[in-house]
Amino acid sequence: MPLSNLNKHTAKGQQEHTNHRKRRHSSENHSPTSKRRRDILEEMTDSQKRANFSALTSPSNGLTRHASPLVNNKPGAAKKLVIKNFKEKPKLPDNYQQETWEKLQGAVEAIHTSHSIQASLEELYQAVENMCSHKMSATLYDQLKQSCEKHVKSNISQFLGYPFLCFVMFLKCMDNCWQAHCRQMIMIRSIFLFLDRTYVLQNSSVMSIWDMGLDLFRSHIVGHILVQARTVDGLLQFIERERNGEAVDRQLLKSLLRMLSDLQIYQDAFERKFLDATDSLYAAEGQRLMQERDVPEYLAHVDKRLNEESERLLHYLDQSTRKPLVTCVEKQLLEQHLGQILQKGLDQLLNENRISDLTLLYQLFSKVKDGMRELGLAFALYIKNTGRLIVINVDNDAEKDKDMVQNLLDFKDKIDNIISVCFGRNEKFINGMKESFENFINQRQNKPAELIAKYVDSKLRAGNKEATEEELERLLDKIMVLFRFIHGKDVFEAFYKKDLAKRLLVGKSASVDAEKSMLSKLKQECGAAFTSKLEGMFKDMELSKDIMFAFRQHMQNMTAPGGVDLTVNILTMGYWPTYHPMAVHLPTEMVDYQEIFKKFYLGKHSGRKLQWQPTLGHCVLKVEFAAMKKELHVSLFQTLCLVLFNDGHEFTFEEIKQATAIEVEELRRTLQSLACGKARVLIKHPKGKDIEDGDKFIFNEDFKHKLFRIKINQIQMKETQDENTSTTERVFQDRQYQVDAAIVLKQLKSVYQIMKTRKSLTHNLLISELYNQLKFPVKPADLKKRIESLIDRDYMERDKDNAIQYHYVA
Length: 810
What we know:
The protein is mostly helical. Helices cover 59% and strands 6% of the residues.
């Protein structure tokens, strides 16, 4: 039945539009599929206050449609469209609400029962819109909720009445019910969309149609105690099967877990039980596997488990579970067994240099609390224990000491590689490594410093063809790393200076550039004071070359005595090691040549004193054997023994000793090199390796050798145990002087810093200050001895009333 429509027009407007206005009623207006429209058009001109044209169509409710053309009163007049409300509201039929809901309810029931809907979706949507437009929204919403609730309640019976023998079937049934419910609610919401977008939005206390559907499913299906318990238990059994290696339907798991998440019961209903089950599973598994497997296998298993759990998070678990799940696995498989893993397998992994396993160990330990700290402590302990085995030599095995520095370098390279590749250059591990090396390398005082100096000597000595210049430079850098760890740097300096002197004086240095490079590294590390004497040695060698050049020019106008050529190195006594002078009987030609040089040198440098050191001399002898002539490169002591055979064919040990005045032990080593070595220019009777009193020596006329110039090892240059001991004792003596000087200087400094009435220090304060000032390890007992020595020498005095108080004596 059409509603009436009233329009007002001005008088002028009615006359102009009488012929164009027509009211029509059509049976089409009653069609329920037509669209309701209302148009009110008004044309305003200067001469017209108002012209109102309207049309309203409502096919579904029988509303009439009116069309009105717009008429221009005057050409060029301004136009304006104004929309006006109905003067009277349209009226609905009395039974419109009931009829419309029955139509909508039939559609909802058809959706719930999966039957076809009789009316079109457009018609149903329009019916909802009309009801909402006439303030029937609240009633419509309640009726829809009751209809949906009735249907949801009817579904619970399938989960309670049927005895499921398999949890898989139960879960599939639940998933089917959930999927069907979601599809139904989507279809219902599309019909009632106008209600959802008007009434629901205007009332915050009312749930949306979709949320209403979720709430109903949660309250009446999943919220049921028995149904929820069976659902969660089934999900946990599914996951347990997968963890045991069985294949499961991940899509079903994903769907049901998404259901719990959408229903907002994922955490309360599932996650807590899931994490408890996970915790129990991995706690038992960790205890069992730690006993059954070795550390590499166990670490691989832990990594595998973590990857598996990450896949579950990716495929079906909610992302909110990630942190507690990963934490649970890491705690039970790693955190609970940190100490046991390190104690059981770290040393093995490090000893065997298993890079991949160590990398995995570092990655896993970095994930758990205190993992890095425990790994760092265990790593440092391993370095200390292993390094101590390299350094400490309980049996005084010479071969072990010989290889110690090379073993330390190899060990350092190994540790550096592990830190770089496996531990990601972690600063804490680098610092721990440095502290550990410093700890174990100084547990054997002085010896490592001595051996490092000798190792450098072996690499810088001529004849070392093991490495190129670039490789040698890299090796020196590695040696400097070890040098930084040692405390007794003064011991290193003493032995390095002694070996450097030999290389320079005998011409055995492999490369001057390498020597200066090493000197530069030492200067950069320890300062100019540390290398001043070493630099002075190089200066002496350069000055000696200039002096010899001038001396040879001087000798051009003179005849060399006995056809001998002399080369002299002038050494400043303060720069070079201390050499004990040895008075030997030199040939007349050598003595004359020495005097000529002495006059020449003192003539240019008055006030200086020359002291000859025969122990450092070496010679080149031209020798005629029966078969051919040879040149022998020998030491001065070897020369003194050989030139005796110019005046005789055979000499006894005692005769050689008397003629040369060489010390007995030095003479034995010298004759041993000439008569018992590879190049035997002398024949000893009786035969044997050792030189004894009464042995006779004969010149070997039949000596043969493939080389023209033959170098016979200079036994006197070989370092003996006595020389090592002597060098070490000199270092200790220098240390005592440093302690004395430090005490005196400290007292002097204290005098200026403390009030004149307190020119003193207590014993404890003095000892503490000395520890800070001295750069080498010193025992308290040694300091007390030096303090007593200074008191005896009147540098300081003890307070008469307080025995632990010292006063400086001006």
